[in-house]
């Protein structure tokens, strides 16, 4: 299997282009899922306090036998933890729960504009980065106006914006904003819940390449410059999702997949989402 390439972030650190997502991985099987993913070759584990499985994330890491420096760990500050004091508590809690001395990346999970605390939360992440507890800082589910505001008010550009991207929700305008600021677009739910597996551009590319529809979609992400984070607790599927670096989609195939964009979300709209 071809090694996963890395993307250099705007702060100089490197991010594996594909990672293993922890969303909806049951807490009692999270350790084994992470251990299996690392054995398959993943070197980025994307978690969050909200997911309730950070202890398993740490268990899988520590039992894998891999040096801490070889695994890129991400977690997120949840909506109810916005604000200077609560953000600090959230990051320190994640460090303790996972059992590590530093985190490679911490994201603001959602901007929650109705609370108007995301700039203060961002400033706190800047402080934690300066203290060495976090190596890189970024955001998740930020729209263009949220990004422009934190950059204007703090002068610090996120390294990454993790947003929902799939063939049916491609968000080209927001991805262009990210690119203009040298912000990596990381894609959650990159397979779109399987809604485009049977779409003709996907099945045709799968037939030509001998790959599965999920592999074609993940390859589309890679060639689009996205950093997808697929999820599966099945070792065979984990390995399949990672095996997307030994083939290319043609320009015509990329254009055909681009035509599948309908703007259809599987998750909420960041401009109004405020669940605590």
UniProtKB/TrEMBL annotation:
Q: Per UniProt, what is one GO molecular function of this protein?
A: oxidoreductase activity, acting on the CH-OH group of donors, NAD or NADP as acceptor
Q: Does the keyword Cell inner membrane apply?
A: no
Would the keyword NADP turn up in this protein's UniProt record? yes
This protein's superkingdom? Bacteria
Q: Which family does it belong to?
A: Belongs to the aldo/keto reductase family.
Q: Which Gene3D superfamilies match?
A: NADP-dependent oxidoreductase domain
Residues flagged as site, Lowers pKa of active site Tyr: 76
The reactions it catalyses are: hydroxyacetone + NADP(+) = methylglyoxal + NADPH + H(+)
Name of the protein: 2,5-diketo-D-gluconate reductase A
Active site as annotated: 51
- SUPFAM superfamilies, per the entry: NAD(P)-linked oxidoreductase
Q: Which keywords does this chain's UniProt record carry?
A: NADP, Oxidoreductase
Against InterPro entries, the record matches this protein to:
AKR, Aldo/ket_reductase_CS, NAD(P)_OxRdtase_dom_sf, NADP_OxRdtase_dom
What taxonomic classification does the UniProt entry list for its organism? Bacteria, Pseudomonadati, Pseudomonadota, Alphaproteobacteria, Rhodobacterales
Q: Which residues bind substrate?
A: 109
Residue ranges of the NADP-dependent oxidoreductase domain?
Answer: 18-261
Q: Name one Pfam family in it.
A: Aldo_ket_red
